[in-house]
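Example 502.
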Amino acid sequence: MTMVERHLDSFKLVSKKSLIFFFSMTSIMFLMSWFFVLRSSSGPNFIDHKLLPSSKLFSTLEDSMFHTKIPNGESSFGNRAILVDNEDVEDESEASKSNENTKCSDGNDFLLKVFMYDLPSEFHFGLLDWKQDGKNVWPNVRTTIPGYPGGLNLQHSIEFWLTLDILASEIPNAPKAKTVIRVQNSSEADIIFVPFFSSLSYNRNSKPRPHEKKTRNMILQEKLVKYLTSQEEWKRSKGKDHLIMAHHPNSMSDARMKLWPATFILSDFGRYPSNIANVEKDVIAPYKHLIPSYVNDDSSFESRTTLLYFQGAIYRKDGGYVRQELYYSLKDETDVHFSFGSIQKDGIKKATEGMRSSKFCLNIAGDTPSSNRLFDAIASHCVPVIISDEIELPFEDVLDYSEFCVFVRTSDAVKENYLINFIRSISKEDWTKMWKKLKEVEHIFEYNFPSKDGDAVQMIWQAVSHKVPAMKLKLNRFRRYSKSPPSIDKDLKSINLPKSFW
Ligand SMILES: *[C@@H]1O[C@H](CO)[C@@H](O)[C@H](O)[C@H]1NC(C)=O
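Predicted structure in complex with 2-acetamido-2-deoxy-beta-D-glucopyranose:
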């Protein structure tokens, strides 16, 4: 499609005769490319799936995941989620379904070459209480996968899944999607990956201990900046080709001001100045949903008896006034569930039942524009109603959210009866279409290990790969004057003054 579109742009320049020739050539090429796409998707892919369950490596990986050590207390949810995700690796219908959905989005066709720093383990798996064995800073993912703590921690566990996927790329013939490959020579890499588990560092270590001026989280960020800025890879690009994960809105709050040329993986831009993070440079990743996937959902418009479901805190900063307004306008509607309190351990069960028995699930801006509630709604096949003008949605370059979400402007939502009338006006047919679409796209928001074609891990790599050409452009522009004396190098000066990227 893009090929045809690109050629459409140049219509004006070409004479009519050559245009016809041109068009038929493109059509032929387009048809041929489809032929190859179809051939390759029914060829090696098919064989891969057949081999999957019997592969020796797969069983070791599976074994290792079932024997994952569960760290103390809080953790059980996280580890259970890993087990649940793993179970349906063998599910043939799931695998073929996700395959079908990714046909148009490149799937296995491209490889992203990633150089990953061997950061000391205190920056990553050490935070999961994994003890380094000798010199190797990485666990052997064939045999050991340290458990990520559960509960609310898990929603920002993106750092964990991406790092595992890179490590798994070093295992020959690993039963995983093959978008990413780790390379040892950074000159050959498309991106330089910084494996700092910054969300976990924030969640675990951001409370000051007595008699300590700086939190462990602040100290780790300082150490990271020192480490990075002394590396050859950073020096030669000033970080422009680096990828840093900061999914928790409060993570990296100190270091990001120094590491801003890098591409960040974020949940939204709510707490970032636009020169530090923006949609051109950075990648928005979905939260990991806390509510379990709704497998074999045979519910219907009628069987979901609650019209509209909302669970969340009421009085919040910033965007919070909308919640309050909506609460007062909806509290007397008998088929609307509106209750307060964030989803905690035992609340998960109630929220799961609530979302699975509701037609629509409200997603209102809180103290940040995004929240994991949207992804919980998707996992429950409860059509999200999004009231959050500033929300950034993951993978929106390839996903049309209007096919499975309802968007309402904040200024409309607070008008009397606007929201309830709008929701009630959505027909059974329209709702069912969106519900079906939710079931089609839900795998896009799943984090898996080993990762699968078209899952969240692969979609993030795909989104990162879309940033690579712009990174390279910036890098090459940056190098224009690299051989001139530094005093006249304009670009160099701007490094300390984050005004704009271009
Ligand atoms: C790394 O790759 C670059 C570019 O391909 C090459 O010139 C260099 O020799 C390689 N370095 C090593 C240590 O292999």
